[in-house]
Amino acid sequence: MDALRPVVVTHPLSTLTAEQLDARAHEAASQVLAIWQGAASA
Predict the structure, then answer these.
(1) Is residue 11 a contact partner of residue 26, using CB atoms and an 8 Å limit?
(2) How far is 11 from 28, CA to CA, in rounded Å?
(3) Between the chain's N and C termini, which has fewer beta carbons within 10 Å?
(4) Would you write out the chain's pLDDT as a tens digit for each of its 42 residues?
């Protein structure tokens, strides 16, 4: 799986507020889009 590009979510998650979780989701979504669009580094 040489082409596997993981999305990294900073932990912890269980102790975050809804607003903090939303920010983490946006960070992950940015990485996903970069991977899907073939960016050199996500």
Answers:
(1) no
(2) 12
(3) N
(4) 788 899 999 999 999 999 999 999 999 999 999 999 986 554
C-beta separation of 7 from 35 below 8 A: yes
Residue in 42, 23, 21, 19 with CA at minimum distance from that of residue 31: 42
Compute the distance between CA of residue 18 and CA of residue 23 in angstroms, rounded to an integer: 9
Which string of b and e fits 16-39 if b means at least 16 CB within 10 Å? Answer: eeeeeeeeeeeeeeebeeeeeeee
Return the pLDDT at 22.
97
Total Cβ atoms within 10 A of residue 11:
9
Residue at token pair 């991977």: 35
